[in-house]
């Protein structure tokens, strides 16, 4: 099917919203075709730093301002994910420098990320700390407290019990990062060994000691988030963020009320796995990995990207999340990936385009 016929199919499938977006259809088809051609070479261009104010957002009700797209470092240092085989600290240094130069200032890590390389000094926190220092630019770093008592099996230290273990773990993280304090400290996930009262006490102590600027949580459902928010509010400390899985193919946070709860409480939703492990990419479309309904959605994203300045499937997938008010933190192990993420910083999908995507998702799911 030719590009013009494909786009007409998209319009018909998308209904009135898409038809309105492309009301000047013949002109749009021609322009989109040219933009698609240009998009194939966009990753070979020099990265231009995005300094527009609209590429930054406050993290919850705090004073921290982060890029509307961050960078996740789950795979950094993880030998099972290819560290020191398909990518190294040298290549990650290029990624970090390109990210900062391109306007990304928010980097997310955790004490257990890449723990396999901790003894060699190459766990995720250790790498992030070194690269942030090397960059010489102000960055917002976030790490996490792993709530499992026997975390020591993975990263050393004692058994984790009680509030005192929270500050102890934080100090160990700061040591690996090479920092005196960190901007964002997060509960990695709720776990019975640490109830919300204990967590709130430990995190409040971290703030009082000047070790942390802001606190957040990860993988919290609405009721858990409301409870933690209330406990921190009593202590005069806002909850900055809730990091959860959220992408075009995984919209559970929209359906279970988590996204709305974050909005109601002024908490920023940080979206991990925003590209569904590489499924929301042009590569997945071209390789045939995406099939059936997934392929239909990716082709729709491809078209929207074409009429939005030649943006890629990846960039539209990220733009969808930022349009919903989330801050996606895709991973990156090479320059191609980080350039894709940078290219989404200036993308602003309008309500019409978001509605088209939602309609198609609702129709196929």
Automatic annotation (TrEMBL):
Keyword field contains Oxidoreductase: yes
Gene Ontology terms for molecular function: oxidoreductase activity
Keywords assigned: Oxidoreductase
SUPFAM superfamilies: NAD(P)-linked oxidoreductase
Limits of the NADP-dependent oxidoreductase domain: 68-359
Pfam families reported in the protein's UniProt record: Aldo_ket_red
Listed PANTHER family: NAD(P)-LINKED OXIDOREDUCTASE SUPERFAMILY PROTEIN, NADH-SPECIFIC METHYLGLYOXAL REDUCTASE-RELATED
The protein's name in its UniProt record: NADP-dependent oxidoreductase domain-containing protein
Organism the protein comes from: Coccomyxa viridis
Lineage summary: Eukaryota, Viridiplantae, Chlorophyta, core chlorophytes, Trebouxiophyceae
């Amino acid at each position: 099917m030719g590009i013009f016929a494909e786009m007409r199919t998209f319009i018909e499938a998308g209904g009135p919203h898409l038809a309105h977006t492309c009301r000047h259809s013949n002109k749009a088809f021609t322009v989109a075709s040219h933009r698609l051609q240009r998009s194939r070479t966009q990753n070979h261009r020099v990265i231009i730093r995005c300094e527009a104010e609209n590429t930054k957002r406050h993290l919850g009700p705090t004073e921290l301002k982060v890029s509307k797209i961050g960078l996740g470092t789950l795979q950094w240092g993880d030998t099972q994910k290819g560290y020191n085989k398909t990518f190294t600290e040298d290549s990650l240094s290029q990624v970090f420098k390109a990210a900062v130069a391109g306007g990304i200032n928010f980097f997310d890590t955790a004490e257990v990320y890449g723990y396999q390389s901790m003894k060699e000094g190459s766990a995720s926190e250790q790498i992030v700390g070194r690269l942030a220092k090397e960059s010489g630019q102000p960055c917002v770093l976030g790490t996490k407290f792993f709530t499992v008592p026997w975390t020591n099996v993975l990263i050393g230290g004692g058994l984790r019990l009680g509030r005192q273990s929270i500050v102890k773990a934080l100090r160990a993280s700061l040591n690996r990062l090479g920092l005196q304090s960190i901007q964002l400290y997060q509960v990695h996930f709720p776990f019975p060994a640490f109830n919300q009262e204990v967590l709130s006490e430990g995190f409040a102590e971290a703030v009082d000691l000047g070790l942390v600027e802001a606190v957040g949580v990860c993988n919290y459902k609405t009721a858990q988030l409301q409870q933690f928010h209330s406990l921190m509010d009593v202590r005069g400390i806002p909850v900055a963020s809730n990091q959860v899985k959220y992408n075009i193919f995984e919209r559970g946070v929209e359906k279970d009320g988590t996204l709305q709860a974050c909005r109601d409480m002024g908490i920023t939703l940080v979206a991990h796995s925003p590209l569904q492990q590489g499924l929301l990419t042009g590569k997945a479309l071209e390789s045939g990995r995406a099939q059936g309904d997934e392929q239909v959605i990716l082709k729709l994203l491809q078209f929207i990207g074409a009429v939005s300045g030649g943006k890629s499937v990846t960039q539209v997938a990220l733009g969808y999340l930022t349009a919903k008010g989330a801050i996606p933190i895709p991973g990156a192990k090479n320059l191609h990936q980080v350039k894709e993420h940078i290219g989404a910083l200036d993308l602003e999908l309008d309500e019409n385009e978001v509605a088209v995507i939602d309609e198609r998702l609702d129709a196929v799911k």
